[in-house]
Q: What sequence folds into this?
């Protein structure tokens, strides 16, 4: 079944999606292991409980063009794979932040 716009928007609220966008936007390209170490700013707990969850989230975000996977092939070394936020990802993050501000300001 093809993905709908509603499911794409709902995806952004899945575990770790927003945190990945924030991390890549604020600190630049990161390797898989660096993203796996992400912690929730409120609780200090890891965002991802398993590497499989992170891998799945990165694949989904790459398909949606929110992040891109950059591969460096330096002769004599292992491949270096980093993830970085795309322009589309930056725009989506800006909108998510605005939505949260609006919701927070309308609370009684």
A:
């Amino acid at each position: 079944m093809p993905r709908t716009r509603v499911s794409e928007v709902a995806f952004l609220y899945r575990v770790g999606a927003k945190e990945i966008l924030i991390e890549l936007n604020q600190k630049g390209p990161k390797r898989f292991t660096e993203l796996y170490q992400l912690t929730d700013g409120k609780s200090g707990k890891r965002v991802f409980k398993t590497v499989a969850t992170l891998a799945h989230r990165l694949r989904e975000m790459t398909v949606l063009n929110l992040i891109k996977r950059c591969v460096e092939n330096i002769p004599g070394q292992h491949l270096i794979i980093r993830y970085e936020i795309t322009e589309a990802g930056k725009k989506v993050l800006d909108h998510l932040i605005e939505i949260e501000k609006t919701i927070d300001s309308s609370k009684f």
